[in-house]
Each structure stands twice: as structure tokens, then as C-alpha cells.
Amino acid sequence: MATEQQPNWADILKRRLANSKRDEKSEEENKSEETELFSKYYTEWKGGSNSGSSYKTIPRFYYRLPAEDEVLLQKLREESRAVFLQRKSRELLDNEELQNLWFLLDKHQVPPLTGEEAMINYEAYLEVGEKAGSKCKKFFTARVYAKLLHSDPYGRISIMQFFNYVMRKVWLHQTRIGLSLYDVAGQGYLRESDLENYILELIPTLPQLDGLEKSFYSFYVCTAVRKFFFFLDPLRTGKIKIQDILACSFLDDLLELRDEELSKESQDSNWFSAPSALRVYGQYLNLDKDHNGMLSKEELSRYGTATLTSVFLDRVFQECLTYEGEMVRSITLTLITSLHPLVQIWLQKPTCYFPKHHSCGLNISIFV
């Protein structure tokens, strides 16, 4: 009986083995199938990519931001943005590559010298571009050369001017990437809290601010942020374009504090320096007689040389958000930021006109 059943079991095992070999797939085939299934189900989940007929002529130009409860989409967006910024960062020239570029430019300078400046003509310029590598290719174009071409009788450009141009471009891209890391929404804007975080984490890298106590950081950050938002957010939208931050000189002034040998005159004229911040802090404390962290009309009237009129103060308190008739610190700093450059004008000219749409967002049209 057992001998009759044995061939049957053997046949079954052989058939199973044969079938399993036919079902075996290579690793590449499995990966391809997995990718295909993922794309299929992900597209269905999002509602299809080209379901409308208009996609044949008009490409998609709007991508909805993930909602707060869409955790996976938010994580995917954050990870994608981080990878994108890392890739952009790798495309920038590092210190060694910049040094190599300078050596190449110096090696290919074309006589005669203009004063003490080394010059380079267009042929040598293109030759350096070929030797410098792929990262430098975007700097060696006819457009860039024409921008830097001035009145040289031989049609050359200054090597130093070109190198400074490259350095400036690299710095702008590095700073753009650094600011974009704080752009939580990923829309090219920084909210007030984003800029506060950026400046707070920047403080330890600025030698000129080493003397500040950590307890003073919050006031310093508030003072610095007020400067940016006063000038770059005139409509009080609560956010600033990163491009606007890069285009204005405020970031240069802030990063100037990296210079360990910055002169006293430069520090006194720099709004972001420690002496300037401490001076504003002292003014604020002197005005705040009851030490409750807010300013009343009476307290604010003593600002500067006490030239603020009651009409001016009434209009300011009508426009600004107050708590029980007193102005909070952030709004007071905005006002001080707006009045700071006008103090000297007031001393020379007692009558000063405020435009109706003042850049601080205060709707003021009065004489003081």
C-alpha cells in the first residue's frame, strides 16, 4: 500500500519544485513591480495625475499644501525639501575650490597691468572656465564677462572684481539655503517665529555678541526682528520674502558682527551690534517707569527729547494693539525702529511730516 502511494508523493514534489522555479523572479523584476504598484496606488490615492483633458495643453501649476492632519504628506514634503537643499548645497563651491579658482585666474592674467590690478581677457577667461570644473561653469559666460567689462582699452576685466563676484554669488546661495532651512511652509517666506529662530541660532556664531548674557537674547532677537519686519513687511502680513532679506543690507549688517576686529564706529552705527541693542534696551527700561514690560502714553511721551506731541501719541495708540491702554514690547520696538532714523531730523527741523502709508504699517498722517 505504501509502495503504491510513494510515486504519487514524489510526482507531487517534483511538480511543486518545477512550479516554484517558474515563479521565481529576479531582484530587479521584483523591484520594478513594486515601483509600478506604488506609483499606481499613490496616483489613485491622490485622485489621478492627468484625469482632466486640460492637462494635455496646460501643465499642472498648483500643488496643495498638506493639511495639519496629513502627517505623512508633511513628512514627505519636509524630507523632499531637505534633500533638495542638500543637493543645492553640494553644488556650491567650497573653500578649496575657490582657492583653486583664484590660482587659475592669477596664472592666466593678461598684461599689461592696470595700476596694481591683474586683468584677464575673454580668451583666457574661457580657458579658465574649462579648467575650473563643472561647478564654475555658470560663472564663465559672456553675460557675466559683459557685466564686469568697463573701460579697459584691451577689452579685459579685473580678476579681483570677477573673483569677488563669484564669492558674492556663493555667499548669497549659501545664505539662501541657510534661511530656507527655517522656512517651515516651504513657500519662500519667513514668518516672525522663523526669523526669530534663525537669529537666535546665529548669535553664538557672531564674535561681536559674545558679551551678551543669555537672559538678554530674547530682547536682542526681538530688536533685530523688528528691524527686518518694519522695513520688509510694510503691509503687516506677518511674513517676509527670503529674496527681500537677501536683497537688503540688513543681513550684511548682521553678519558683519562675525568680524572680530570690527571698529567701535562701525559697531555704534550698526543696529544689530551689542552696544546698539543695549542702548535701545536702556531707553526702553528708562521709559518703563512701572516696570510692567509695557508703555503707557505718558511713559512713551518721554522718548528721545520728549518732542512727541499728544496728537501723535493718540494716533499711535489708536493704530496699535494695546492691552489696557499700554503698548507691548514688540510694538514699542517697532515704533523705536521707525523713529530712530528721524531723531536727528527732528532736532534740526521741528516740523516733520509722516506719509499716510508709513512703512511701519501705522496709518499716520499728522504733523509733530
UniProtKB/TrEMBL annotation:
Q: Which GO terms describe its molecular function?
A: metal ion binding
Coiled-coil annotated residue ranges, if any: none
GO term, biological process aspect, one:
B cell homeostasis
Q: Pfam family of this protein, just one?
A: EF-hand_13
State whether keyword Membrane applies.
Answer: no
| Sequence ranges assigned to domain PP2A regulatory subunit B'' EF-hand in this UniProt record | 184-260
Superkingdom of the source?
Answer: Eukaryota
Q: Which GO terms describe its cellular component?
A: centrosome; cytoplasm; nucleus; spindle
**PROSITE patterns linked to this entry:** EF_HAND_1
Compartments (UniProt record): Cytoplasm; Nucleus
Tell me where it mainly resides.
cytoplasm
Keywords recorded for this protein, A-Z: Calcium, Cytoplasm, Metal-binding, Nucleus, Repeat
* Entries under InterPro entries matching the protein: EF-hand-dom_pair, EF-hand_13, EF_Hand_1_Ca_BS, PPP2R3C
What protein name is recorded for this chain?
Answer: Serine/threonine-protein phosphatase 2A regulatory subunit B'' subunit gamma
The species is Astatotilapia calliptera (Eastern happy)
Q: What is the lineage of its organism?
A: Eukaryota, Metazoa, Chordata, Craniata, Vertebrata
